[in-house]
Amino acid sequence: YNIIQDKNSNRERLMINIDRLMDDLTELAKIGRSPGGGITRRCFSREDREARNWLVDKFKSCGLTVNIDPAGNITGRLEGRGPSVVCGSHIDTIVDGGMYDGSLGVLGALECVRTIKEKGYDVSSPIEVISFTDEEERFIGFLGSYAFTGQIDTELVIKARDESGISLIEAMASFGFNLRELPKAARKKEDIKAFIELHVEQGPILEKRGVPVGIVECVKGNYRYRLTARGRRNHAGFPMTGRKDAFAILFSLLNRTFKARAEIGNEDTLMTVGVFEVEPGLENVISGHAYCSLDFRDKDQGVLDLIEAELKRGAEELNNKYGVDIDIETILKIAPVYFDQNINAVVRSSAEELGIEWISLQSGAGHDAQVLGLSFPSAMIFVPSHEGLSHCPEEHTSRDDIEKGVNVLFNTLLKLAR
Ligand SMILES: [Zn+2]
Question: Is 178 exposed, middle or buried (0-12, 13-18, 19+ CB in 10 A)?
Answer without folding.
Answer: exposed
